[in-house]
Amino acid sequence: MKSSLTARLTRTLFLLIAATAAVSIFIVEQFVDDVEDTILDLELKAAAEYFKERLRNDEFQPVKTARLEAVFLPEGETEAVLPTYFQARTLPFSREIEVGETTLLIVGERLEEPNGKLFLAQDITIMENREFLVQLILISVAAGMLLIGYFIARGSARYLVRPFRKLTREVLGAVPGTSVPRINTSYRDQEFCDIAEAFNRFLSELEHHIEREKSFVKLASHEMRTPLAVMNGALNVLEQRQNLSEADQKTLARLRRAMQTMRDDMDVLLELARSEASSEGSRMVKVSEIVRTTIDDLEHGHPDQAGRITLFEDNPDVRVRTYPVLVRMLMRNLLQNALRHTRSPVEVHMLSNGILVKDFGSGLPDAVVKKLRVSRATGGGLPRADQLNNTTFGFLIVRLVCERLGWGLQVIQSDDRGTEFMIEIGNRG
Known about the structure:
By secondary structure, this protein is an alpha+beta fold. 54% of the residues lie in helices and 17% in strands. The protein has three domains: 5-148, no CATH class; 174-276, Helix Hairpins; 279-424, 2-Layer Sandwich (Heat Shock Protein 90). Helix 3 runs antiparallel to helix 4 and helix 5 packs across helix 6 (324-341). The protein starts with a helix and ends in a 5-residue tail after the last strand.
C-alpha cells in the first residue's frame, strides 16, 4: 500500500526532530557527567594533598566520616587491616564501587615519603542519586520533545503539502475537452507555479488535438457521404431497369444492404468519436434477430464462409433497449475476426445473460486478452496501438462499442483450444 506524501514528510521531520533531541540529551548528559567527575576529582585531589602534607609532617591520623575515609598503610604491613574495598588493588587506582546502598569513589596511591600506601574513599551516594534524578528529568524532557516534535512534524508536513493538495484538486477538476477552465497559477512557491503553467499548456495542446480530431471526423464523414450518394443513385438507376434477372435483383439487394451497412457504420464511428453518449436511436429490440441478420449478411457477403457459423438460441427472447446499429457492428467484428483468422467452426449462443461467441482457433495474445476485458462496473483502458495488428484490430471497435453500450466483454478462454467471448448484455427489458 502506497503512503501519502504527508505521511512521509511527517516521518522524515519527526526522525530529524527525534535525532536532534537524542543528540541534545546525550550532550547534556555527558556534560553533567563531566562536571560531576571534575568536581569529584578536584575534591579528592585536594583531600589527597591535605593528607600527604599531614603524613610528611607526621601529623596524619586515620579519618572516617560520613563522607570521607582516609587510611595510610606503611610499607611492609599487611592489607588485612584495611577495609575490604581497599584490599588487593593495583596502585594507582580510582573507581566507583557499591557498598550496600552506598556508592563510594575509592582511590589508592603509593607514596615515597613516607613509604606506604594512601587510600581514600568518598561517599558519592547523594551525587549519584542526583545524577539519576537528572537522567529521569532528561528522559522526561526527551519524551516531551518527541511528543511535541510529532505534532510539529505533522503540522509542518500538512503545511508543506497543502499546495500539492490544492493543485491536485484543480487538476482532478479539469475534465479533458473543449473550453476547459485553466487551473490557478498564483502560488507562493515558484515550483508550483511552474507545474500549474505546464499543466495549462498541456490542456491547451489537448484542446487543440481534440478540435483537430473532431474536424477530421466531420471532414471524413462529409467526404464518405458523397461517394455513398453516388452509389445510391447508381443502384436506383439499375433497379429501375426492367430486364434484370432474379439473380441480378438479389445482387443489387445485397449491394444496397452493404451500402446501408457502410452508412450505418459511418454513423457508428461518428457516435463512438463523440465524448458523450446520446439516447437518440436507441429502442427495444430482440437481440437474437440482430444476431441472426448479421450472420445472414456475413454468409451472403462471403459465400465461401457459408455454414461455418452456427447459432444456438438457448434464450431467443432476450429484449434490450439499445442501439441496433452498434449491436450489429459489435457482432460483425467479432464474427469476422473468427472467420478470417481461424478455419474452425464458429458458435454463437444466445443466453439469458448475454451472447457467447466461440471458435476453435489458436487463441489471442495474453496482452490483448487482458486489455479486451470490459466490466460494466469498472470499464478499463484501451489496448495500445502496438498491441493491435490486423488480427486483433477489430477488437478495438468491439471494445469501444461495449463501453458505449454499457455491456461487459469477458474473454473466458483463449488458448490453443480456441477463444470464447462472453458479451454481458445490460438494460434488458
